[in-house]
Each structure stands twice: as structure tokens, then as C-alpha cells.
Amino acid sequence: MSFLIKEEKTNWKYILIVVVLAVLVSGGILGYMKYFIQEMTLLTKFPELKKPEKVIKDETADWKTYRDEEYGFEVKYPGNYEYNAGPLPDIFLFGTMGAPQYDINVWVRSSSQLDKFYENKTEICTEDFLSDKKAYKCEGDKYIYIEAESNGKFYFLSVKGDKLSEKFEVFNQMLSTFKFLEQEPTTANWKTYRNDIYNYELKYPASWYFYYKGDLVYNTGLESCVNGGYRDPKTVLFSDEKIVDCSLLIATHGWNWFSIWVRDLQWSAEELNRTGIVKSEGEYDSECQRELDTTKYEQITFKGLAANKRVALAVNAIGDEPSTQILFNYKDRGWQIIYANDCDGNPLDPAFEQILSTFKFLALL
What is the pLDDT of residue 317? Predict the structure, then answer.
């Protein structure tokens, strides 16, 4: 008798359903776990606490503003202070209203004032900044002054008196508001100088002075030489310096001049055609770090005329400070324009080149 074992068929349909259900359940569990973990993470995080920003009050916000386009600066001063013009056009005074004197000053100069104060210096001076310019700040028992240079001018700000008084605090606040004006200066409001004898004219800053220099000037009073009082128009000088002794016009070196000299003798071809650099061997200018008389010669054209430009890059043997000279001949005479420059040949005052740009010959009648 034989026994037959009957094999049962596997029901893959049910197995597939079970597998699908298992996958779905597992996916749901995993998804929930991920969501649960995210929620727990958010719950365990503490919100970031930000400190309230400290609002700094600008104590100068409602102050008055003084702005001077010609001298290139702006500064704010308190409402109970007032501005007053100084004894010279380049001095600006600030103080409390009705005060007998103003102890906060701004002085704009064409040369540094520090050397003058260093002669008997007892204060402590440190490097500082005025606006965005490097400056030197010096403090004494009863004063503070700070000096910085911008556009060829030196700005000298000072306060004097009792250092425990309010004005010293005001002075430091005013320093924080001080700004240099970088705008190109204009000649629109400048004065015009006209020379009808030698037929030329030019413009110069309204606050400057002009002087006639004779071949010899001895013991002449100020009023006889300032602003054309001394009538010798061969040589005329323009400067922001008010001369207190006209005899100083004999020696022009050391002054911040722009000058024009007309002589009866014409310049030679050799003088007008000179080129290159000339210097004195063996003698040295310690300030400019060059040999004495180091001068660069260059042929140029000035107002359509052949000219020679000479730029001194060191003092000369008799002590004349570096200067730029332009030599040319016109109407059978020799002309020389001269202005002061630094050891690198740059004009000491940016106004010099502007004055030069306004120079023109007048039509002969």
C-alpha cells in the first residue's frame, strides 16, 4: 500500500499583503519617531536672549554748525555759544554768548604752528587724529591745542583757561564734530588784481593780501606797501600773511608767497632752454635730505610762450626755501612767476596753482 504526501501550495498573495503591511507600519513608526525627536529637540532649545541695544545719545545733535568753504572745514558748537570773526580772516573764535573773550579758536595757516610752540614746550604732545587726518595733540596746565594738515593748510585748534571748566569738555566735543571739506576750491569769489602798466591780471583768494615790492624798501609803514600802497608794480606779491614790517619785503625767502616779477632785461636762450637736474656737490640740506641747490629744469609752454620751469627741491646756498619759478619773455621784457613748494616740489598752498591758472595777458589798447 503506498502513501502519497500531498504538497500544499504557498499562498504568496497573503505573504505579500503581510509584507506590505509590515513595511507601512515600520515606515509609520520611523516617521513618527523622527517627528517626535524633532519636537523634543525644539522643546529642549532655549530661545536666544538678546541684550537690548544701548542707545547712545548724540549730545551735539542740536548744536549749531559753522561751515567755511574757503578755508575748507566745518565744526559744530553749542547752542549757547556764538561764533565771532578773529583779528585776521584765518582765525575763527567760539565762546559763550556775551563772554568778554572767546577761548576756543580755530586758526587756519599756510605753515605749521607746532615749531613755534615747541620752542618753550613743557606740555605732553601725542599723536592723534582730527577727523580723518593725522594730528598732534598737546596739553598744558591751562590749555589744549591740536594741529592737523589738509590740502596744504594747517588747522590749529585750541582752548585755554581752567581745565576744570566746561569749555574744555565742549572743546573735545567740538573736535569730534570737526570735518575737513574736500571740495575743490573755487575762484568765483576771489578778488581780481589788474596791472595796467604791464598789461596782465589774475585772481587771488578774497582773504589774501597783495604787496608791491620796489627794488629797495626801507622803513616804509605797513599802509604804504600793503594792498598796493607802495606803487612799484614791477614786482607784486600775494600771500595770506599780513606783513607787519614792510622791510621784510627785501628778503622774500621764508614767506609763503606767490609773486610776479617783470624786469627790463629779457631772459637768454640759454636760461629758457635749460633742462635736467643740477645740485651742489658736498653741501647738504638736512631737512629735504638732498644736496643744496638741487633744482629740476624743464622747458614748458606758458600762455603760448616758450618758458622754463625751475623747481627747487632743497634750500639754496643763501638759505632761500624751495620754490617753483616760471621764466619767459613777453613784450621785450623778462618775466618770472615764483611760488613756494615743499621738498618734493608740491606747492605749499594749493591756491598757488589756481592763481597761476587765472593769469592772463590783457589786450593792448
Answer: 66
| Alpha carbon distance 334, 266 (integer Å) | 4
Distance of CA 199 to the CA centre of its chain: 35
**Residue 152 sits in a domain of what CATH number?**
3.40.1000.10
Query: What kind and span of H or E run contains 174?
Result: helix 166-177
Domain shared by 173 and 195, yes or no: no
Domain shared by 89 and 149, yes or no: yes
Distance of CA 104 to the CA centre of its chain: 21
Tens of pLDDT, residue by residue over 78-103, are: 989 998 888 877 889 998 888 777 88
Distance CA 184, CA 188 (A): 12
Tens-place pLDDT, residues 242-266: 765 555 554 444 457 798 989 999 9
236 and 311 share one domain: yes
Residue 341 φ/ψ region, left for φ over 0, alpha for ψ in the -120 to 50 degree band, beta for the rest: beta
Strand positions, DSSP E, 98-190: 104-109, 124-130, 133-139, 143-150, 153-160, 179-180
**What whole-number distance in Å separates Cα of residue 73 and Cα of residue 9?**
104
Counting Cα atoms < 13 Å in the Cβ hemisphere of 266 gives 11
Residues 6+ apart with CB under 8 A from 297: 274, 275, 276, 277, 278, 308, 309, 310
Give the separation between CA 341 and CA 350, rounded to whole angstroms. Answer: 10
Residues 6+ away with beta carbon under 8 Å from 267: 308, 327, 328, 329, 334
Residue 338 CB-density burial (10 A; 0-12 exposed, 13-18 middle, 19+ buried): buried
Residues 219 and 256 in one domain: yes
Distance CA 78, CA 350 (A): 32
Q: Is 103 helix (H, G, I), strand (E, B) or coil?
A: coil
Task: Tell me phi and psi for residue 129, to 5 degrees.
Answer: -130, 140
Residue 180's nearest CA partner among 73, 271, 287 is: 73
